[in-house]
Input
Amino acid sequence: MSDTALPTQITDRLDEAERTLLLKFARQALEDGVCGRPLLPLYLAELSPHLSQPGASFVTLTSHGELRGCIGTLEATEPLAEDVRQHAVAAALEDYRFPPVHVDELPYIKIEVSRLTEPRLLDYRDADDLIRQLRPGVDGVVLRDGLRRATFLPQVWEKVPEAEIFLGMLCRKMGAPTETWRTKKLTVLVYEVEEFHE
Output
């Protein structure tokens, strides 16, 4: 399997209509949230099983090609459609790295949705074995160290293709020294995503 091949665990991919609808939901929620309006009710009975059943997602916002917010979850606890709506609002208003999105920015915001598979524990022996097992461009990675946790979506590999640098940056995001993944046995989980955007 090449680095660009579709992840093998996503066997029930969304069809084009479902993707379009999720992006529409995300856009409406983004605009409502930024404008201070409550979200309209969702009628789950009218949605496909993919959208009405629990699903985990991340919503990434960009403006002029630069990251503007990214919020999501690793656990599927809400219907996928609602999960995407909530994270669209949170990415705009609650990402601590950025000021809240302003109404004037809305025309320039682009939305990307990542639908996640369930994370699985990666069993590895040491740092070298961890590097061997990771699949750049395919695996989203979660690092855990006690109560600290951080994740990078697979899309991060596009900007950071070297696994050693990728893991070092993820350690820093977790609040740990860059070399922690080499010097300490961390809990590592991996997942795949189905990504689509406006």
About this structure: Residues 16-34 form the longest helix (19 residues). Residues 120-192 form a domain with the Dna Ligase; domain 1 fold (CATH 3.30.1490.150). The helical segments are 16-34, 49-52, 80-93, 127-133, 163-174, 180-183.
